[in-house]
Amino acid sequence: MTAPTVNPTVSLAVSAWTQPFFHNALLAGTFIALAAGLVGFFLVLRAQVFTGDALSHVAFTGAMAALAAGYDLRLGLFVSCVLVGLLLGGIGRRGKADDVVIGSAFAWILGLGSFFLTLYTASASGMGNGGAGTSVLFGSIFGLDGGQTTVAVVIALVVTALVLLIARPLLFATLDENVAAARGVPVKALGLGFLALVGLTAGEATQAVGSLLLLGLLAAPAGAALRMTQRPFVGLALAGGLAVAEMWAGLAAAAWIPQCPPSFGIMAAATLVYAATYLPRPAGRAGRAAAAGA
């Protein structure tokens, strides 16, 4: 009697799910995605997606600058994203980054990142680690160790808590900033604080999906949530939930298909969910009644 054959793909997936690197990726990815979904909701609602795109370039430049100087790349990620976010908000009106300012600095920031990458790869410390730039660009969530996972979870929890804390006044300032300012809401301070949170989230999410795909994790779940509901706090919860589900789907796809990078799986899931919001929806009772009356 022959032994039952085991599908190699299933065997590889089960093996991946039992490994510490996958557990670290799942834990860190869950909280990173939650923070990105919540922050991304307000980023889209406030029409500041271009700011998120700029910070994705800043994340690469900051990481390369830290490596070239001999420091941990995460230090460069967080410091550069937060400082540039605050700078853009400070230059803009009422804590909002100005698109003209962002556009003027866009190419220069990316060029500076290329300069720091060259410095790093030419240095003694970078000789044997030429893949560092690639990991920053495309993410390395499967490369997180226990300590890095703990830091990622703690920072993501702090960002999540702060977003929920300022959600109501930030929503007021977003929907009608003039009335909010007249009511005593610190509109500029809220805008600057929010951009600092965007910077922290950008540094976090770069570890999961890379700086090139960072904007997708910030914008796609939030964009889908805003298309699915007009109730702001329901949309906020939905954005966070979709981001987490898409993170899980991407990691599962990477476990099942070894040739599939996790960042690609995550972005593919996010894109499919967003595209699904454009599918025709069945008419509700009101729609059917109106059609019958006509």
UniProtKB/TrEMBL annotation:
One of its GO terms (cellular component) is ATP-binding cassette (ABC) transporter complex. InterPro entries: ABC_BtuC-like, ABC_TroCD. It is found in: Cell membrane; Membrane. It is a multi-pass membrane protein. One of its GO terms (biological process) is transmembrane transport. It comes from the Bacteria. The chain crosses the membrane at residues 21-45, 52-69, 75-93, 100-120, 151-173, 185-202, 208-226, 233-257, 263-279. Pfam families: ABC-3. Belongs to the ABC-3 integral membrane protein family. This is Metal ABC transporter permease.
